[in-house]
Amino acid sequence: MVCSHILGFPRMGAQRELKSALETYWKSASEPDDTNPDLEKLVEMGKQLRAAHWALQKKAGQDWVTVGDFAYYDHVLNHIQLLGCEPARFGFKKDTPELERYFAMARGSLTVESGQAMSMTKWFDTNYHYIVPEFFPETCFALSSERLFDEVKEAKALGYPVKAVLLGPVSFLYLGREKADGFDRLSLLPKLLPVYRQILSRLHAEGVEWIQIDEPVLGLDIEDKWLAAFRDVYQELSREPVKLLLTTYFSSLAGHIDTVCSLPVAGLHVDAIRGAEDLKEIATKWPADRILSVGVIDGRNIWKADLDKALAVLRSPGLAGRQNLWVAPSCSLLHVPFSLDAETKMDLRLKQCLAFAVEKLEEIHALKDALVKGDAAVADALESSRRTVELRKGDWVHNAQVAKRVNALGEGIDRRKSPFDVRQALQRKRFRLPAFPTTTIGSFPQTQKIRSARAAFKRGAMSEADYRQSMQDEIAYCIEQQEKLGLDVFVHGEPERNDMVEYFSEFLEGMAMTVNGWVQSYGSRCVKPPVIYGDVSRPKAMTVEWTKFAQSLTDKPVKAMLTGPITILQWSFVRDDEKRSVVADQIALAIRDEVADLEKAGIGIIQIDEPGLREGLPLRRRNWREYLDWACRAFRIASSGVEDDTQIHTHMCYAEFNDIMPDIASLDADVITLEASRGDMTLLKGFKDFSYPNEIGPGVYDIHSPRVPSVAEMVGLLKQAARVIPADRLWVNPDCGLKTRQWKETYEALDNMVKSARLMRETVY
């Protein structure tokens, strides 16, 4: 029987209702009053959103609604509570409400000294961030949350057929982090499996037939011991009277196919977008009497599917005529926006080429109908798809001048004039900064006043002159605060910027913005990825005016802020009709032009952020070298056209970098700032082992938490860093930008940061 289903759905709602409810609750939870009426409203909003999303799935003809993909903050954090392994360091009392504990782990606790928020890192190669589980030898597990079972009951009560979803036990352990030396978190598996069995048993008792059990680490180059663990794990879990759909995504299963096909599970889901080369072998080896779910609709991108191409895959040898075939997206639809309905101002040519989550539900159902009823049953959908394929070949997509410039790039285009030690001496002479120079990563708090002015200007309710004056007033305020704090290198605060990628996309040809194309990044934080639909170029300067104005207000150096080519690439929905390396070069040239204009305007320090660099790394190591070569080259193309005394910074955050340290060094940035505080400076081990040659600013406090760290905490982290990095090459800065914080906590934290730098100067020099 051919069926259709999805692996997960966007959580925030059509109008980001969950974001609003979360932030209202967090604000009221921070008030001194013990009661919080907004908690009940938050829980009710979650219930309403789940019901609405299940209704959409059913309306679109899905054979099951997916239950368990909803989270108030993060699905991995859901599992930390479900499995009863909340870190003991939080000191939670038995009567502490579940959601209060939940958000304390995600955002930090103000009530205990060890209440720093749990680490957060990228979910594979996406821009979604998950909370990293913490594992100790003494970690125990126990079924400790009813939320999943309550959600199953909700869906059942509404009359929906339920497919529950769990993160698999091997992936849960693999994605966590050991917090004790010499300890192997895989050794916790015997303690974890009984709890998984208990969960499966409970779900069966609730009437759940199918459980989607996600094991995305099967798409990685995992060690043999982890691969071997799958056999024991699924032999054990198969004893429960439920049907398991083993689910993989984001990558090829190459090297693991024999293991996967030997597991005693009732079904297997494979990503046919990123693992298309696996399908023939899997179709041959996967038993014909078991379910094979094929992800032929791209869950990571927003382009309308080529339905003819997808049907060709589903009708290929080994799949054609298969009775146990399920049609699905490649992965959860969490990674795409909600619906195209709100895009009323978009170029109609572009809109015809797109499909968001709701539209992808329709595409999946169309493919099922074509397989079951024949192509004539979906003739309109097929014709629309074919028109889109032709539309994307037009002149509105391709620019001959851009192609010519990229093709003409020479060998030396990506190299600075002199080596780092020569540049460093000239830069120190120019800026005369003290030891342990202090700076921030770029943005300052985006107040309601800033957001209101920007919104009014966009809708035409504020004149351009009034808007410019409003932004200049905000910049002046940021400069004034930095003067009071005594920072060494200033920033203009970025009040004019809605998002570090969206802002630039509004200036670049070949890119477009949506009105409501929001995608969750972490917690309540949503981003609106631009759409790279054609060849990219920069018609005019993007940042020079604001940076020049800020510099005119102070004698301190003001650092210009740009987003790097790979981050723009990674944090956009990228065209799929051109090589990503070519698109990266196009963006790099646009940023290079901006860098040149900033330098001409007298700006001597320019930061080109690349937090997306590690995120773009292919999941299989065999593909790393090709990617790193063109990605690092793109950064150097963007940054290398300056004089030796112009200082180039870059910033990276919330990802693991130790395994690509030589490539980070190859960027040849004069200064790199990076997230480090949430990981207790463990990232610095890679800089020590590699002997990173340039200057480094490891973040000394976590900006994603409202908690203000003490001077002693920051000094402790700086002393850790100074044991790894020579003190004369250390900068002092936060983990990331400050746009999501409030001014009061920002000022207090930065004040402590400046004091910690001054103490280090007294101690070391």
UniProtKB/TrEMBL annotation:
GO terms for biological process: methylation. Keywords: Amino-acid biosynthesis, Metal-binding, Methionine biosynthesis, Methyltransferase, Repeat, Transferase, Zinc. Residues 4-315 form the Cobalamin-independent methionine synthase MetE N-terminal domain. InterPro entries: Cbl-indep_Met_Synth_N, Cobalamin-indep_Met_synthase, Met_Synth_C/arc, UROD/MetE-like_sf. Pfam families: Meth_synt_1, Meth_synt_2. 5-methyltetrahydropteroyltri-L-glutamate binds at R16, E17, L18, K19, K122, R525, C526, W571, E615. It catalyses: 5-methyltetrahydropteroyltri-L-glutamate + L-homocysteine = tetrahydropteroyltri-L-glutamate + L-methionine. Its EC number is 2.1.1.14. One of its GO terms (molecular function) is 5-methyltetrahydropteroyltriglutamate-homocysteine S-methyltransferase activity. L-methionine binds at I441, G442, S443, E494, D609. L-homocysteine binds at I441, G442, S443, E494, D609. Its cofactor is Zn(2+). It is an enzyme of class 2 (transferase). Transmembrane segments: none annotated. NCBIfam families: met_syn_B12ind, PRK05222.1. Catalyzes the transfer of a methyl group from 5-methyltetrahydrofolate to homocysteine resulting in methionine formation. This is 5-methyltetrahydropteroyltriglutamate--homocysteine methyltransferase. It comes from Oxalobacter aliiformigenes. The gene is metE.
